[in-house]
Design a protein that fits this description.
Strand order of the largest sheet: 1-2-3-4
Number of strands: 4
Shape: globular
Structural class: alpha/beta
Order of helices and strands: HHEHEHHHHEHEHH
Number of helices: 10
Largest sheet: 4 strands, parallel
Strand content: 5-15%
């Protein structure tokens, strides 16, 4: 339900190392309404088209939460688009794949997030995405088995979770990294929206993983 505004603190850090593109998926943020429900395949197809039109090949794809499911689907269906994949706080753990459990986890996380994240979430959920579209999108998230897809990815995968995240736990992150043919796991401080609560360390882990000069290899697979 939220937009690329979530990524701005992390994008500012990563922009010191290369070009960064922030993308709103169809129906989210500043993107126009598609006037229909869009499955994960549809979102991945839009991203693939955007990358082609921008002339971007072998990009580093970074997804957060539901966005992790989208970039994983993109990398699976269009492997030439991704050189590496970063899954931040990826949704959703198998035991939480029901509307009630997912909503409860989201509510718990809300009490751990800073006020600025609350402000972004409320305006994006209610005014930009809208509750009806969000409710139509939720089953796609709940029915997607990311753990099965990550094992089919040819690109290296980095999974990052927050140490206080009630939605995507460290054990879940380690499991996903372990299922990837070439996977690594890192943990940073914070709840679910780690690119807002610890953007500096998230960026250091991403850039260090890309260059082989990581700040701390603790928590690696």
């Amino acid at each position: 339900g939220v937009s690329s505004r979530y990524f701005q603190p992390l994008a500012a850090e990563l922009a010191h190392h290369g070009a960064v593109y922030l993308v709103d998926l169809p129906g989210y943020g500043a993107a126009p309404s598609p006037r229909r429900d869009v499955p994960i395949d549809g979102h991945a197809g839009v991203l693939a088209s955007l990358l082609r039109r921008a002339g971007l090949e072998h990009a580093v794809l970074i997804g957060h939460s539901w966005g992790s499911q989208v970039v994983a689907r993109l990398a699976e269906q269009h492997p030439a688009t991704a050189s590496r994949i970063v899954l931040m706080a990826p949704t959703i753990e198998p035991e939480r794949r029901s509307l009630g459990r997912a909503a409860f986890s989201l509510l718990r996380d809300g009490f751990r997030e800073p006020p600025v994240v609350w402000g972004i979430a409320i305006t994006d959920y209610l005014m930009r995405c809208g509750v009806p579209y969000l409710l139509r999108q939720t089953p796609h998230m709940l029915q997607d088995a990311l753990e099965a897809r990550v094992g089919r990815l040819s690109a290296p995968v980095l999974v990052i979770t927050g140490d206080r995240d009630p939605i995507a736990s460290a054990s879940w992150g380690r499991e996903l990294a372990g299922r990837a043919p070439d996977g690594r796991f890192r943990e940073v401080r914070g709840p679910h929206v780690i690119m807002h609560t610890d953007p500096v360390m998230v960026a250091r882990h991403i850039t260090g993983w890309l260059t082989g000069d990581e700040p701390d290899a603790g928590g690696a697979r």
